[in-house]
């Protein structure tokens, strides 16, 4: 099934996502569906709700050619800390097509998350990965306020 990217006005984008506790086959199918949506729309980062799933999950691929081997899956992600150094970024969002927004983002964030099997991890995300994570994680909590 080909997935579309949901707009900010969609109900699934206007509610906080639910925490994932079942890491079985259904979750693996949802991960594949979100990834297929990313590839189809050539997006480097997508929250699960942007693909229509109200799950606390973000997929990121910072590779220019979006090689599947570089796909990163962040389940139930939480920002533990962020650098005080911030830069102003011009961001686009497939859930708000045609709009560019200026946002101040930390250039480094520490994220705690679970992988596709449920194991916990902590990662220091820098540069593009940090920006992608901050932006898509805002969708998970329905933080839709303009910059």
UniProtKB/TrEMBL annotation:
Keywords carried by this UniProt record: Hydrolase, Iron, Metal-binding, Protein biosynthesis
GO-annotated molecular function: metal ion binding; peptide deformylase activity
Organism field: Frateuria aurantia (strain ATCC 33424 / DSM 6220 / KCTC 2777 / LMG 1558 / NBRC 3245 / NCIMB 13370)
Gene3D superfamilies assigned to the protein according to its UniProt record, in alphabetical order: Peptide deformylase (3.90.45.10)
SUPFAM superfamilies for the chain: Peptide deformylase (SSF56420)
GO terms for biological process, alphabetical: translation
Family statement: Belongs to the polypeptide deformylase family.
InterPro entries: Peptide_deformylase (IPR023635), Peptide_deformylase_sf (IPR036821)
Full protein name: N-formylmethionyl-tRNA deformylase
């Amino acid at each position: 099934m080909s997935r579309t990217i949901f707009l900010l006005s969609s109900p699934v984008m206007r509610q906080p996502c639910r925490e994932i506790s079942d890491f079985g086959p259904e979750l693996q199918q949802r991960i594949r569906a979100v990834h297929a949506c990313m590839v189809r729309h050539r997006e480097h980062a997508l929250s699960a709700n942007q693909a229509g799933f109200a799950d606390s999950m973000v997929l990121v691929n910072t590779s220019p050619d979006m090689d599947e081997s570089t796909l990163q899956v962040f389940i139930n992600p939480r920002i533990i800390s962020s650098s005080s150094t911030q830069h102003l970024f011009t961001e686009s969002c497939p859930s708000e097509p045609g709009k560019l927004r200026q946002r101040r983002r930390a250039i480094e964030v520490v994220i705690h998350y679970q992988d596709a099997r449920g194991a916990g991890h902590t990662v220091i995300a820098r540069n593009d990965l940090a920006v992608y994570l901050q932006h898509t994680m805002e969708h998970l909590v329905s933080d839709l306020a303009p910059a």
